[in-house]
Amino acid sequence: MVRRACAAACAIAIVAVACKPTLDDTQSIVASARVLAVRADPAEAPPKSQVTYTALIVDASGTLRDAPLDWAYCNQRKPLAELGPVSPLCMTRDADFLAELGVGTQVTATIADTACREFGPDVPEAKMGEPAGRPVDPDLTGGYYQPLRLALPGSTGDAFTLERARLACGIVGATSEQLVDFRKRYRPNTNPAVDALTANGARVVAEGSGAPSVVVAGARIAFHATWAECTDPAKDCGGAEPYVVFDLASRSIVDSREAIRVSWFATGGSFDHDRTGRDAAETDSFSDNAWIAPSQPGIVHLWIVLRDERGGAGWQSFAVDVR
Amino acid sequence: MTRQSRAITCVLLVASALLGHATRASAQPRPPAPAPARKIDPPKLVKFVDAEFPESEKASGKGAAVLLQIAISETGAVSQVAVVQSASAAFDAAAVAAAKQFVFEPARADGKAIPVRITYRYEFVWKDEFVQKKTADFEGVVRDGATKKPIANATIVLDSGQTTTTDAQGKFSIPDVAPGDHEVTIKAAGFPTVVTKELFEIAKKLDATYEIRPDKPKGRAKPGEDDEEEEIVVTAPRIVKQTVSTEVKTEQARRVPGTQGDVLKVVENLPGVARAAVGSGALVVWGASPEDTRVYLEGMRIPRLYHDGGYRSVIHSDFVRSVELVPGGYGAAYGRGLGGLVTIGLRPLDEPGVHGSAAVDVIDASLSARAKVTDRLHVAIAGRRSHLDSVVSGVTSTDVADVVPIPRYYDGQARLVYDLGPRETFEVGGLMSSDSIDHALLSSDPSLTKRETRTLKFWRVYARYENKLNDGSVITVVPSYGADASRLANRFGAVPTALDVDSSIFGLRASWRGQRESWLGVSVGLDAEMNASQLRRAGSIGSPPREGDVRVFGQSPSDQINVDAWKTSFASFAPFAEADVGLLEDRLHVIPGIRFEPFVVNGSRLTPIAGETPQIGYSHEDTVIEPRLAVRFAVTPRISVKAAFGVYHQPPASQDLSAVFGTPTLGLSIAKHYVTGGAVKLTRTLALELTGFLSRSEDLVTRSRSESPELAHALVQDGRGRSYGTQLLLRQEQLGRFFGWISYSIMKSERSDAPGANFRLFDYDQTHVLTALGSYDLGLGFEIGTRIRFASGFPRTPVTGAYFDARTDSYQPFFGAHNSVRIPSFFSIDVRLAKRFRFGGKVEGEVYLDVQNVTNHKNPEELVYNASFSQRDTITGLPILPVIGARLSW
């Protein structure tokens, strides 16, 4: 799209903009070992809770059940001048502020008691001779997050991944009545889950649940991924959940709904879009994408990762037999 | 005056008055006398005298013909001239005056000289040269300051070498003076020699009155009287010039390639100005932030010089007399800015009749008109509207407009000038400007969809009173009022960035400027500004980005957001004084100045909103004294050196005073400018100017580096800056058909963001900026110009790697050393070809083709990375860009 627009702009030669180069932005094709997603169970937890973290690590051969993935909580606050999501210092192997959690594709750890002070709305502890610092700003959903650092050794060094575990810290700047109302109505997040995937209308068999679905080499496949419809705010739901948030602009508790992003991955072929999804205003609980199967026959692994707006993640693995 | 180049068609209609009828008056051809036939030889013109095209008729733009009857004696001399058919009093007089100087070979009858009368048709042919005069005229009178009597035989010498002497009435006249500043020396017996400086403008006449008091006989003066007795009074006081400034007149500026006829866009080509990124329109002067450079229109501050994209300035060119850029070291009359100064002078409204212009090109269309309503009242109005967005949508069905920011803008100005007296004017006027940009980059992934809406509107109304007093001093008062409204609403995925600022601005600039002594010019005044703003901001603390942020182009903002709404008000009343002390026979000028400026800042909120916590406001005051000093020394009439020093303070921007996103207690930032240099006049019209500069700034506002900053202290004043370099200007004023200049700047601008932190390159640092341009009049109304530009690329922070953010399914960059790489250099050749036409006498048309980047050089404008930051490339700027336009003026 950008290239087409650029060509038009250059052709008329009157637009003060520039022409963007063609860069390889494809992220959906898996060629080497990489982390595609990380899931926390439960998806939102208060300090001192035990949380299980699971990473989806894949390579060209499929999902890796075992990998030397090194986990650590990063307890370094982000400097205000840092525009990224966390302090870049977190992305290291050894540091005082890293709390090692273990190695593997899954670890279980307890959230620190001070997490809402360090990464949440509570005023951080004052350092010697200094006034108390500024609390962390929430994200759009009112969320606060404990950073985790994942390090995957590779031939060229560690590949780092950042995970952020959603903290149940409450809200800041609200009146006492609003706090009570919020606690009463807010339901912690639940990880989304893929309900089903169909290819040209036929259900695709999840990996490990039967023989791989068969597709024709080079064929264009219309994928249709679905997730749960969340209509009852009082129940856990693996889809786009409704939730309440303290709106900083109006200083009131308002109803909201999660957006859902769908990330598509495969070990071969090509997708029309690497990412699709529904924003908060779209109530549909599905997303479509098209995939052109590779021209060479063989087993192709597919992964669909759902992410909700409150930091929850869920995925499903598939294998298709290209003939 | 104009050269005697007009071709006068002299048509001898009939030789008449034959055979003793020489004294018979008749305007008609006469039949030959009856027989006996005589051989008649008509008179023959042997000396033709070219008549002056009357000055008063030039405005009409029309030629004329005067029918004359000329009586020629038997000697061939013209004995009498009478007007048979008049064109106008002025034409008649000019024709008669010329015809009286004709010399003929007498008419002969049978070989004998006889007196005759003939009828001449004297044609005045209009030529474009009359309005394309490239020089100025200098006229005036020299009087005894004590007795007010004219001084005869006084010698007037210009530094160009032109000289004349006064007549019995003390009057003098020097035609064809090259435009620009000239030193004028007046010598008269019994009077002291006076040296002063005058500004000559193209195609204008400078009328000056010099009053000189006679030398006091030695020994007669009482102590303390000498200076007074030698007082020199000139009609205009010495103009206090900035030490380093480049001023370009409108007629030249309009012809500079790449400006598409926009006078104010010439500023981009002046020394010390960095090349702005394409589409930004930012003005980076001597390594200062764009927001640190102030723009003043006749003493009234306006928020911007250019519309979005930098395509056009916000003031119509027909309103502009001149534009002056002072990159630093300016005098005490201006302040509140750490960077440079751009001052725009409005065109005097003193022409008779109705004039105006209409212009259109692919970018916008404009219209202006000015008229003399009564002998004392003049009005002018102008407007402009862009249509680039319509052109783009008309020529392509693609989504260009959605992807790229295409600005939409309009502006308008109006003036009403009333002459209260011969040297006293009152003016009211107003201007407004509006810019808006909407664009969206859509994606199948809602989190990657980007939308941007940006508007900036402002308006001003002002009154201006100017009185040139009899003693030569000038009083100017300019009160103004207006409003600025800016809106920024971005959305990156679901993450918003919003910043709304509504400001009301009151300004007052009043000054008195006079020549108290022959060696002392003085300027005092008051520069006041009050600004009340209401602001609202939402989004990440890092968006919009600030100078010094370590980021990459297109990087998504953090999804940690906040909201704030606050009010601020700012007031400053700065009295200032400046003197121009002329020493060593006026070769040395020492210009000390001082500015006393109290700043008062009020705000509505000292801490963020939290629950039921009451709102606490604040007020703080800072008073500063800013010394300024400039020195100029004329080593020889052609060589001069200069130096300047100044202290400048700048109040914090109102958007930085948020309790959430900034710090309400921010104080003033300070800069010190040091300037030195020299100028050599290589020829009468060719000058070389070399300037070195150093600017040091402290207490600059930067982001807090702390991991846990104090509440309401997101910004701190730990920043320091330094910019230093040299600029060169080789300027050829209009010489025959050519003018042009070469400007080159080599500079380095650095910032330090925290105490003890090393200096890093400033985001807008450009080591080399070279501009060479020239314009040549090909004749027959054709003109060609070219501009060559080279500029270093802006510094950027390289990406050395990336990590995967599992929550957002995106990569985040690891950065290398801050601003340690540069965007590749910029090079462009632009060409302008114009053709002027004249329709009838008054209407002139111009069509032009302004082609930017004729070599289609791929100019990198920004570094970009792919999604995983594993590949880097550059966004390239404009390809070859032909802009065709037309302008009609009358």
Range of strand content of chain B: over 45%
Structural class of chain A: mainly beta
Termini distance of chain A? 32 Å
Beta percentage of chain A is 35-45%
Shape of chain A: globular
Helix % of chain A is under 10%
Explain this structure.
The complex is a heterodimer of chains A (323) and B (890). Chain A has helices spanning 2-12, 115-118, 176-185; strands at 34-41, 44-45, 50-59, 62-63, 70-74, 98-103, 106-110, 144-154, 157-167, 194-199, 202-203, 213-215, 220-227, 242-247, 252-257, 260-266, 270-271, 275-278, 286-292, 298-308, 313-322. Chain A is mainly beta and 323 residues long. Mean pLDDT of chain A is 89; it is low at 1-18. Chain B has 890 residues and is mainly β. Chain B is built from 6 helices and 51 strands. The two termini of chain B are 23 Å apart. Chains A and B meet through helix 1, strand 1, strand 9 and strand 18 of A and helix 5, helix 6, strand 44, strand 45 and strand 49 of B.
Supply database-style keywords.
heterodimer; A: 323 residues; mainly beta; five-stranded mixed β-sheet; five-stranded antiparallel β-sheet; 41% strand; disordered N terminus; B: 890 residues; 22-stranded antiparallel barrel; 6 helices
Q: What is this entry, summarized?
A:
Chain A is mainly β and 323 residues long.
What order do the helices and strands come in, and which of them pair?
The complex is a heterodimer of chains A (323) and B (890).
Chain A: H1 2-12, E1 34-41, E2 44-45, E3 50-59, E4 62-63, E5 70-74, E6 98-103, E7 106-110, H2 115-118, E8 144-154, E9 157-167, H3 176-185, E10 194-199, E11 202-203, E12 213-215, E13 220-227, E14 242-247, E15 252-257, E16 260-266, E17 270-271, E18 275-278, E19 286-292, E20 298-308, E21 313-322
Chain B: E1 10-15, E2 40-41, E3 44-47, H1 55-58, E4 64-72, E5 78-85, H2 89-99, E6 103-105, E7 107-109, E8 112-114, E9 116-124, E10 136-144, E11 155-158, E12 163-165, E13 171-177, E14 180-187, E15 194-200, E16 205-212, H3 226-229, E17 232-234, E18 246-249, H4 250-253, E19 294-297, E20 300-302, E21 320-326, E22 341-346, E23 354-361, E24 364-372, E25 377-386, H5 388-395, H6 400-403, E26 408-421, E27 424-441, E28 450-468, E29 474-492, E30 495-517, E31 520-539, E32 562-583, E33 588-603, E34 618-634, E35 639-650, E36 669-681, E37 686-703, E38 715-735, E39 738-752, E40 760-761, E41 768-779, E42 782-791, E43 795-796, E44 799-805, E45 810-815, E46 821-822, E47 826-839, E48 843-852, E49 860-865, E50 872-876, E51 881-889
